[in-house]
Specification:
The protein contains twelve helices and ten strands. With 297 residues, the protein is an alpha+beta fold. Helix 2 (50-68) packs across helix 4 and helix 9 (220-233) runs antiparallel to helix 12 (275-296).
């Protein structure tokens, strides 16, 4: 029933500077549910293990969702009634699991002299251990009859639905305090999450991506149109994944030239009957883009 894909590529600017990819991504799909996850490690110097932190965040999210789904019947019965409370509990469990994983990694891998060399002794002493691993996190879950997702920090969560609409499902800026980097490493991280829940619209595909993808586009319309095009390709079999990987690699040379991660969960059985509608939306988007260009001339 459910399928998915996930890819992370190093940004052109990071490639030029010899900086490791700080993004991580993963997905999981089975008969009952599917999860797509991305995380973007922070670039500032105090987050010098953020590439590891993003990997641990992705793993923590997958393990937490799997734990909640151990009793499928109970979860699917309770979630629609208590979704706000359950999402908050899931977020807190992800944070807890991530912090445990971070502490274990730190215990097994003490800070090296090379990692400390960018700081004075006084500067380094003020940095909490969890900040070394600071990262954003975006999670989306497709279930039977409903879907939900949550995020802390920047990035995008997009849904393509059976009525042909393509929507950004969370505006992360609404929940982020001004001038503060929202991160899973923050002491009040659980209050920085935003979330969505949908049960009255059938999702054909749900996407999560780090902000490097969004900034490679000139407008929200172009960004959303991109997801509609990918959704049309999901009905054609498994060759689409190679094409997506090539495309996001190409897109790292646009916008901020940042790392890009894109993960998706989808239901091919739902997409195939809607393929003509999706193609119609693609043509409408092309016409809208052409009209906009003509007005600018």
């Amino acid at each position: 029933m459910f399928s998915g894909f996930s890819n992370s590529v190093r940004g052109a600017s990071h490639d030029a500077k010899g900086i490791v990819c700080q993004d991580s991504s993963a997905h999981y799909a089975c008969a009952d549910y599917a999860v797509a996850v991305v995380a973007d490690g922070h670039g500032s110097k105090k987050h010098f293990r953020s590439n590891i932190g993003s990997k641990l965040a992705v793993e923590s999210a997958l393990k937490t969702i799997a734990k909640y789904y151990e009793n499928v019947e109970e979860f699917e019965k309770n979630f629609p009634v208590n979704h706000d409370m359950i999402i908050r509990h899931i977020q807190k469990q992800v944070i807890l699991r991530w912090n445990i994983a971070v502490k274990e990694h730190f215990r097994n891998n003490p800070v090296t002299a090379d990692e400390k060399k960018e700081f004075t002794q006084e500067e380094f002493a003020k940095i909490p251990v969890e900040s070394y691993y600071g990262t954003t996190l975006i999670v989306v879950v497709a279930c039977k009859g409903f879907s939900f997702g949550f995020q802390v920090g920047d990035g995008s969560l997009v849904g393509v639905f059976d009525d042909g609409s393509t929507e950004i499902l969370i505006d992360y800026e609404e929940s982020n305090p001004a001038n503060i980097t929202s991160s899973i490493c923050n002491a009040n991280a659980s209050k920085m999450f935003d979330s969505f829940y949908i049960e009255n619209k059938q999702a054909l595909a749900l996407y999560v991506s780090t902000d490097g993808l969004y900034t490679s586009f000139g407008s929200d319309d172009d960004f959303l149109a991109y997801h509609t095009i990918i959704t049309s390709q999901l009905a054609e079999g498994d060759d689409f994944e190679t094409a997506v990987m090539k495309n996001i690699t190409k897109r790292t040379h646009y916008g901020t030239q940042d790392d890009i991660s894109l993960s998706c969960v989808f239901n091919r059985e739902l997409i195939i009957p809607k393929i003509e509608l999706i193609k119609q939306k693609i043509e409408e988007n092309k016409q809208k883009h052409a009209d906009k260009k003509a007005k600018l001339k």
